[in-house]
Amino acid sequence: MSPTPASTAPLNVLFLCTHNSARSILAEASLNAIGKGRLKAYSAGSSPRDLQQPNPLGLQVLTNAGLSTEGLYSKSWDAFAGPEAPHMDLVITVCDDAAGEVCPIWPGHPATAHWSYADPSAGDGSEAVKLEAFRKTLHAIYHRLELFASLPDDKLHHTLLQDSARQLANHGSTAP
């Protein structure tokens, strides 16, 4: 399957993290802003947070960066494993815990990659310290997704998509 022009169907990317409350939410919002209809992002987790809410500091950082938080909520990856779910072209784990879990069998056998980011909500630091960790994580994710979105269509062809995404895993996962 080759990617289709933005006027027909975008390339669908699912970001996974254990709780779907921070890194995967940041990635979903970022790629939807960058993708301009060519790329469509979703996020999910193996064990979503209680009450299905993203981390408030993540939402604050997205808002401060001018990125939309509309429609963002924590959800189970099971929502994307069924036949009624949108077809995914690429599934990217963004936390090491989710990368080590046994994932569902995704319909259509999408390409997969792992992009490791430290959990910005981990630790006992002050809210200001955690907010800065979220800002740095957003910056690192956004930068990598800009590179991904700038790939030419031939690099996003299904047969090359996995290699392209995995090569970006080695491209600066930490913010300067």
UniProtKB/TrEMBL annotation:
Domain spans labelled Phosphotyrosine protein phosphatase I: 11-151
Residues in coiled coil: none
Keywords: Arsenical resistance
Cleavable signal peptide: none
GO biological process terms held by the UniProt record: response to arsenic-containing substance
SUPFAM superfamilies: Phosphotyrosine protein phosphatases I
One Pfam family hit: LMWPc
Protein's recorded name: Protein-tyrosine-phosphatase
Organism name: Rhodoferax lacus
